[in-house]
Write a structure and sequence with these properties.
A: mainly alpha; two-stranded antiparallel ribbon; 13 helices; B: alpha/beta; 5-stranded mixed beta sheet; 21 helices; Extracellular solute-binding protein (chain B); Bact_solute-bd_prot1 (chain B); SBP (chain B); transport (chain B); signal (chain B)
C-alpha cells in the first residue's frame, strides 16, 4: 500500500473512532435536549422524531411559581459559587505557601491534605453530619457551603501548589529586588502566569459543587435544596415526570458546558502546565 | 507536667465524658399543653379549621386548648416524594394559619429519606421532627428513636386522634404503627399503596367469547381467578398477538422484575398466595420482631413459587426484567400489556389522558389465588415523631400528626390534584361521593381517579387477602438478597433450587440463625 493511501486509511480509521466516541458521548445529551422540547407522548413515540415543533411547556412550568425552579437554581448558584470562591482564595494562599515555604515534613503535609480527598464521600458523611449537627449547620446554606469547601479546598490547595511550583522563584525575587512587597510580588508577578491553573481549579471545584447530589441531599434543608436534589422530586410514587426530568437535566448541564467552552483555553493550559519540561 | 501526661489525662477526661453521656438516662417527655391549668379535659371543642366535611370525624381539642400556643415553632417533616406529602405541602397554610407553627415539608426519593433519617437518628439530632416511618427501612430499624404517641393521645390537655385509632384499618395500624409489641404507638398510618391486578377491560370484553370457546372458562379477572389461569391467559394472549388476532396489546402480562425492591414485591404476591413466606412466624409482617427465626424459604411452597415465577416471567413482556413499578406502569399506560400486578395508586396515572393511552379502559381486581389464597402486598407508611426534638417541637409535631392523618385531611388529600393518594381512614370510604367515585364513568371517579381501584383494594386489605412482608431490622438486607437471587434465576444463571438455597443461606446468616 502506498504511503499516501496508508495515511488516508489511518486517518479514516482514527476519525471513525473519534466519530463513534463523540456519538457515544453526545447522543444521550442530544436525546435529553430533544426530549425536553417534546410532549410526553412525543418523547416515547417510535420511531423517534428528530424534526418536530418544539414545546416549551416543561420549561415554562419549571420556572413558574409552582415549579419553583428559580429557587433551586439560585441555591445551586450560591452554594457552588461561594464554596468555589472560598476554596480558590484559601487554596491559592495555602498552595503558594506549600510551593514556596521550606519546612519540616512539608511533603507529608501536602500528601495529608490531598489524602482527605481519597476517602469516598459516604465515609465522611456521618462524622461531618455529627459535627454540623452540633454546630447547628444541618439544613442551612452555610452548612452546604462548608461541606463543599471541605472537599474542594484540599483539591484547590494541591492543584495550586503544583501550579505555583511551575512559576520560577526568580521572578518573585526580581520583583522584590525592584521594590515589591512579598504580597505585591505574589499578586503581580506570580498570579498572572498561574492564572490558567487558577481558572482550571475554579472550574473543577465549581463542577463538583454544581453537580453534587450526595452532600446536597444530606446537608441541605427544605429551603436550600439545589437542582440535583430537586431533580429527584420528579421521581414519584405515581411515575416519573419525564418531560421535567429532561428539562432539568438540560438546565443542569448548560451552565457548566458554557463555562467550559468559555474557559477551555485556560482549562487546557492549566491542566497541562508543567507537562512538558 | 509532661506533655504526654497532659495528653493522657485529657484523653481520660474525654472518655469519661463520652461514657457518662452515653449512659445518661432520658428525661421524661412533657406532653401537657402549655395552658394546661385553663383546660377543661371533659369537654371537647372543634378545632378552628375551616371547611369541615360532614360525615367525617372532626379534629377536636379539650375546651380551653390554645391552638396558637406553639406559634413560631418550626417543624421539619421528611417524607418520600409521595402524593399525600405533595398534597399536604400544597395545603399547609391551612394548618399554619390555625396553629402558627411553620412546617417545612422536605421530599426525596425513599433511599435518600432512609439515609437522612438514619444520619439524624444516629447523630441523636432533630433536624427532622416528623419522620416518614417506612415500616421496613426505618421503623423496624430505628424504632427506639421514635416518640411513643400514646403519651400524647392519652394526655387529657392535648388534642387526640380524631375518630380514634379504630378508624384506621386494623392491619395497617399494626404494621405501620408498632414494632415488636403494642406497648408503644410509634407512627400513624399515612399512605397505603397496595398491589392489585390492573387489566385491560376492553381486551377482556372483546375476546371473551373466543377465549371461552377455546379454553372453556370465563377469563375475566375477578377474585378467585388462579395464578395458573393467569399464566394460561397471558400465554394465550401472546399467542393471539403473534397470530395477529389481538392488536390492542403486545403482551399478555408485564411484571416489575428489575433487580430491585419491586422484584421482591412482585414475587412475594405469588409466594404468599401459595402459603409460603420468608419466615415462619405469623405476626412477623404486622407487629414485627427483632428475632425472626430461621428462613422459611426451604419450604415446598417457596420452591414451587420460585419455579412458577420463573415460568411466568418467560411469558411476560421482555421489558419486565428492566421495569420497576414505574416502568411497568408506563408500559401499561402505553397500551402494551393486558394484565399487570401493580400498586393501586397508579390508577390516577392510567386515567390521565395526557399520560396514558388506556384511560377509561382499565379494570382492577384482586391478585390471582395461589394454592392457598390471594395475597396482595401492602406498601404503606406511617409518620412519627423524632424523640430527640425539644418538648415544644414534639408537641407541635403531634398537632401536625393529628391534622395530617385526620379523616378531614385524608379526604382533602384524596381530592387534591397534587395528591390523589387514597385515605388511610375507614370513615372516608363511607362518604357517598367516595363510594360513587369507585364506580367507573361517574363524575366523582373522574375527580378522584384512584378510587377506581379501591373496590379491589378494600378487599385486598381484608386480613385473608393482605400480605405484609417481614418487619424486621434486617429486612433491607434480606430484600436485596431476595431480588438479587431471583434476578439471577430469571436471567438463566441459576435454577430455582439454587435460588431458594442461596436465599435461605444468606437470610439465615443475616439474622444469625
Amino acid at each position: 500500500m502506498a504511503p499516501r493511501v496508508r495515511k488516508i486509511a489511518m486517518y479514516l480509521v482514527l476519525y471513525s473512532i473519534a466519530g463513534i466516541a463523540l456519538l457515544w458521548a453526545l447522543l444521550p445529551v442530544l436525546w435529553m435536549l430533544l426530549s425536553s422540547l417534546k410532549t410526553q407522548a412525543g418523547m416515547f413515540s417510535m420511531p423517534p422524531k428528530f424534526i418536530f415543533k418544539p414545546n416549551f411547556d416543561t420549561f415554562a412550568y419549571m420556572f413558574s411559581e409552582r415549579g419553583n425552579f428559580t429557587h433551586f437554581l439560585t441555591n445551586s448558584v450560591i452554594a457552588s459559587g461561594v464554596s468555589t470562591g472560598i476554596s480558590l482564595v484559601l487554596g491559592t494562599l495555602g498552595g503558594f505557601a506549600l510551593a514556596r515555604r521550606k519546612f519540616k515534613g512539608e511533603k507529608h503535609i501536602s500528601f495529608w491534605i490531598i489524602s482527605t480527598r481519597m476517602a469516598p464521600i459516604p465515609a465522611v458523611l456521618l462524622p461531618l453530619y455529627l459535627m454540623f449537627s452540633k454546630m447547628g449547620l444541618i439544613g442551612t446554606m452555610t452548612g452546604l457551603i462548608f461541606a463543599y469547601t471541605t472537599l474542594n479546598l484540599p483539591f484547590a490547595l494541591w492543584m495550586m501548589m503544583i501550579f505555583f511550583k511551575e512559576v520560577p522563584v526568580d521572578l518573585e525575587e526580581a520583583a522584590m529586588i525592584d521594590g515589591c512587597s512579598r504580597f505585591q510580588a505574589f499578586w503581580r508577578v506570580v498570579i498572572p502566569p498561574a492564572a490558567p491553573g487558577l481558572v482550571a481549579t475554579g472550574i473543577l471545584c465549581l463542577m463538583f459543587a454544581w453537580n453534587d447530589f450526595l452532600f446536597a441531599s444530606v446537608f441541605s434543608g427544605h429551603e436550600n435544596q439545589t437542582i440535583p436534589v430537586a431533580a429527584t422530586l420528579l421521581i414519584t410514587q405515581q411515575g416519573i415526570a419525564w418531560g421535567q426530568a429532561m428539562a432539568t437535566g438540560t438546565v443542569i448541564i448548560t451552565p457548566m458546558v458554557i463555562a467550559g467552552l468559555i474557559v477551555r483555553k485556560y482549562l487546557v493550559r492549566g491542566l497541562s502546565m508543567g507537562a512538558v519540561k | 507536667m509532661k506533655r504526654r501526661t497532659v495528653f493522657q489525662i485529657t484523653a481520660l477526661v474525654l472518655v469519661i465524658i463520652m461514657f457518662t453521656g452515653a449512659c445518661s438516662s432520658e428525661a421524661p417527655i412533657d406532653t401537657k399543653s402549655k395552658n394546661a391549668d385553663k383546660i377543661n379535659p371533659n369537654k371537647l371543642v372543634d378545632a378552628p379549621f375551616e371547611g369541615w366535611v360532614e360525615g367525617l370525624p372532626k379534629i377536636q381539642a379539650p375546651e380551653g386548648f390554645d391552638w396558637k400556643q406553639f406559634k413560631g415553632v418550626q417543624i421539619n417533616v421528611i417524607s418520600e416524594n409521595t402524593p399525600p406529602s405533595s398534597a399536604l405541602a400544597a395545603n399547609i397554610e391551612k394548618f399554619e394559619k390555625v396553629t402558627g407553627i411553620k412546617v417545612n415539608i422536605e421530599q426525596s426519593d425513599l433511599g435518600t429519606v432512609v439515609e437522612k433519617v438514619g444520619l439524624d437518628f444516629n447523630a441523636k439530632s432533630a433536624k427532622y421532627h416528623v419522620i416518614y416511618a417506612d415500616p421496613y427501612q426505618i421503623l423496624a430499624k430505628y424504632s427506639e428513636h421514635f416518640v411513643d404517641l400514646n403519651l400524647f393521645n392519652k394526655e387529657p390537655t392535648m388534642p387526640h386522634i380524631p375518630g380514634g385509632l379504630e378508624d384506621f384499618v386494623p392491619t395497617q395500624l399494626e404494621v405501620l404503627g408498632y414494632m415488636g409489641n403494642k406497648e408503644k404507638l410509634l407512627a400513624l398510618p399515612y399512605d397505603n399503596p397496595t398491589m392489585v391486578l390492573a387489566y385491560r377491560k376492553d381486551v377482556f370484553e372483546k375476546y371473551k367469547d373466543l377465549f371461552m370457546k377455546e379454553k372453556g372458562y370465563d377469563w375475566t379477572p375477578r377474585p378467585g381467578m388462579t395464578w395458573d389461569q393467569y399464566y394460561d391467559i397471558a400465554k394465550w394472549i401472546n399467542q393471539k398477538v403473534k397470530e395477529g388476532v389481538i392488536t390492542e396489546v403486545k403482551y399478555g402480562t408485564g411484571h416489575q422484575a428489575k433487580q430491585y425492591d419491586s422484584l421482591m414485591c412482585d414475587f412475594s404476591n405469588i409466594l404468599a398466595a401459595n402459603g409460603g413466606d420468608y419466615f415462619g412466624r405469623k405476626d412477623i409482617g404486622t407487629i414485627g420482631t427483632i428475632d425472626p427465626g430461621k428462613s422459611a424459604m426451604t419450604s415446598k411452597q417457596a420452591l414451587e413459587s420460585v419455579k412458577f415465577y420463573n415460568q411466568l416471567l418467560k411469558e411476560a413482556a421482555p421489558g419486565s426484567t428492566s421495569w420497576d413499578w414505574n416502568g411497568l406502569a408506563e408500559a401499561f399506560a402505553a397500551g402494551e400489556i393486558a394484565m399487570a400486578p401493580e400498586w393501586h395508586e397508579f390508577s390516577a396515572m392510567f386515567e390521565n389522558k395526557e399520560k396514558s393511552k388506556v384511560a377509561g379502559k382499565v379494570g382492577w381486581s384482586l391478585l390471582p389465588k395461589g394454592k392457598v389464597r390471594s395475597a396482595n402486598i401492602f406498601g404503606g407508611t406511617g409518620i412519627g415523631i423524632n424523640k430527640y426534638a425539644s418538648d415544644d417541637e414534639k408537641k407541635a409535631a403531634w398537632l401536625f400528626l393529628v391534622w395530617a392523618t385526620s379523616p378531614q385531611s385524608q379526604y382533602m388529600i384524596l381530592k387534591s390534584d397534587l395528591g390523589g393518594s387514597t385515605p388511610t381512614r375507614s370513615s372516608v370510604y363511607e362518604l357517598p361521593d367516595v363510594k360513587k367515585g369507585m364506580e367507573p364513568g361517574t363524575k366523582e371517579s373522574e375527580e378522584m381517579p384512584n378510587l377506581l381501584s379501591m373496590k379491589s383494594v378494600l378487599k385486598a386489605w381484608e386480613a385473608e387477602n393482605a400480605y405484609m412482608r417481614p418487619k424486621i431490622p434486617q429486612w433491607p438486607q434480606i430484600d436485596t438478597y431476595v431480588f438479587t437471587e431471583l434476578s439471577k434465576m430469571i436471567a438463566g444463571k441459576q435454577s430455582p433450587e439454587q435460588t431458594v438455597k442461596a436465599i435461605t443461606e444468606m437470610v439465615d446468616e443475616a439474622t444469625g440463625n
